[in-house]
Amino acid sequence: MRYFHLQSIFAYLYRRPVLYSLASMIFSTVVSKIHSLTAI
User: Fold this and answer.
1) In which domain, by residue range, is 35 found?
2) For the chain, how many structural domains are there in total?
3) 5, 20, 35, 36: most buried by Cβ count inside 10 Å?
4) What gap in Å lies between CA 35 and CA 1, rounded to an integer?
């Protein structure tokens, strides 16, 4: 059931490329911040 929920979320994002690009930008920013924190 949870897998189906994730699939529907990805399908929703796929139909809206603006939201998808925004989400990927936020995700990459969070990942880079985590990497900079772990590097110290």
Assistant:
1) 2-39
2) 1
3) 20
4) 32
